[in-house]
């Protein structure tokens, strides 16, 4: 079972017409709804399950600028600016606090990589800097392992994933957005080639624009429209500890662990250095596009063939809009966590911080991270279907940059000047000869 997420009851009435329909109720979808509603745009957000019940509530809760891909940095900076005022904006607690984040370097080679990233980030005048072992020990009380140094950003922060998405959705509703849960969108209707509405499992909603913020489900949704979105998913396993009063306040990551202190006094802990990749039919269809990323992260990836291969092989790739869609068969994507990854993360953090050795594990869960071949998202209009926009493939960065992404896609939908240049996030980068690849210094 996934973590316990604040509930957001569904609106009962389905509108017959709105300006924009948003497909997906995670951090991206709710943030988009909020920024559109703030502009007076009529919005219906449709979620097949519950608000923020998939990866948007299952992530670490980090909100960082540090170690981002240079193409993503302006969006990360804008997102942190929004996060800093988020509680006031939504008139609720999202758990955001400016706590600082630290990447620990075990070797001089790790430290050199951080220094190379700083060279790319200096143009943005971030407060990120390299610190030595003495400052590490001062800022992370109880640390017992010696590190070569660390990359530290004092102005990075954290929020509570189980609280933030629901709080943002409720704020969007107060501003006039309709929030519909248990309401899968089966597909888009077009006339003369452009969007005129969506068909949900309950009824049709007329609209002029659609934003797909479907996370791990986005490729399947696009495929039924004849749109190629080269997206895959990887499994991320997480544990939550019981309360630990003597633990560090600053979030940090080492080679095999990453953690965040929670508002309840416990810690969210996961692996910073490992990802489990289930081989599925799309893994082979998209093999060439993901080969550069696989080469960069080879040591971090563990591959397996299991139930997901069969499940995805059996999942229809095309369906009619007058019949149930795959989105109605799986309301919440709730994969089992990889126990071996969790145990290695637990052993690794206990080696660095002895206080974690005997702390009880309160809960474990897993989520599916939607990834792109170059590890940066698609935030883009779809040229072949005017009125259709995509915001997906955040590659594990979606929670932290979600508010900025929501603002950006909202501005694109209404034709306003975008807060950051959206060109790096265009869908067409995969077909226009750009040959996009992951940045080797980003994480």
Automatic annotation (TrEMBL):
It comes from Candidatus Acidiferrum panamense. Residues 19-412 form the FAD dependent oxidoreductase domain. Belongs to the DadA oxidoreductase family. The lineage of its organism: Bacteria, Pseudomonadati, Acidobacteriota, Terriglobia, Candidatus Acidiferrales. Pfam families: DAO (PF01266). One of its GO terms (cellular component) is cytoplasm. This is FAD-binding oxidoreductase. GO terms for biological process: D-alanine catabolic process. InterPro entries: FAD-dep_OxRdtase, FAD/NAD-bd_sf. PANTHER family: D-AMINO ACID DEHYDROGENASE, SARCOSINE DEHYDROGENASE-RELATED.
């Amino acid at each position: 079972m996934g973590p316990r997420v604040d509930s957001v009851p569904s609106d009962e009435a389905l509108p017959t017409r709105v300006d924009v329909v948003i497909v997906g109720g995670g951090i991206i979808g709710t943030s988009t709804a909020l920024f559109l509603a703030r502009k007076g745009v009529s919005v219906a957000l449709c979620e097949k399950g519950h608000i923020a019940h998939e990866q948007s509530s299952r992530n670490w809760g980090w909100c960082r600028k540090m170690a981002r891909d240079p193409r993503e940095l302006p969006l990360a900076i804008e997102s942190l600016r929004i996060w800093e005022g988020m509680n006031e904006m939504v008139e609720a607690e999202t758990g955001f606090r400016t706590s600082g984040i630290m990447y620990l370097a075990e070797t001089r080679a790790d430290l050199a990589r951080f220094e190379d990233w700083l060279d790319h980030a200096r143009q943005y005048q971030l407060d990120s800097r390299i610190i030595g072992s003495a400052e590490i020990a001062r800022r992370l009380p109880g640390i017992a392992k010696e590190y070569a140094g660390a990359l530290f950003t004092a102005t990075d922060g954290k929020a509570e994933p189980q609280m933030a998405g629901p709080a943002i959705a409720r704020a969007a509703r107060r501003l006039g957005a309709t929030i519909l849960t248990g309401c899968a969108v089966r597909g888009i209707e077009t006339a003369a080639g452009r969007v005129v509405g969506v068909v949900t499992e309950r009824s049709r909603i007329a609209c002029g624009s659609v934003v797909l913020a479907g996370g791990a489900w986005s490729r399947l949704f696009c495929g039924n429209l004849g749109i190629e979105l080269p997206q895959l998913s990887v499994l991320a396993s997480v544990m939550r500890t019981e309360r630990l009063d003597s633990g560090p306040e600053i979030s940090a990551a080492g080679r095999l662990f990453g953690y965040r202190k929670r508002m309840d006094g416990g810690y969210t802990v996961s692996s910073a250095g490992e990802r489990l990749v289930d081989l599925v039919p799309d893994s082979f269809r998209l093999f060439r596009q993901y080969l550069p990323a696989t080469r960069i992260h080879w040591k971090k990836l563990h591959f397996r063939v299991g139930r997901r291969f069969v499940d995805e092989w059996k999942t229809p790739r095309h369906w009619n809009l007058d019949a149930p869609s795959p989105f109605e068969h799986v309301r919440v994507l709730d994969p089992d966590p990889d126990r071996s990854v969790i145990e290695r993360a637990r052993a690794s953090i206990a080696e660095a911080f002895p206080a974690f050795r005997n702390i009880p594990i309160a809960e474990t869960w897993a989520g599916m991270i939607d990834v792109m071949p170059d590890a940066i998202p698609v935030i883009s209009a779809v040229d072949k279907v005017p009125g259709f926009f995509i915001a997906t493939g955040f590659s594990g960065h979606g929670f932290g940059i979600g508010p900025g992404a929501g603002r950006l896609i909202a501005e694109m939908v209404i034709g306003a000047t975008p807060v950051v240049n959206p060109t790096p996030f265009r869908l067409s980068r995969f077909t226009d000869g750009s040959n996009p690849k992951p940045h080797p210094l980003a994480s």
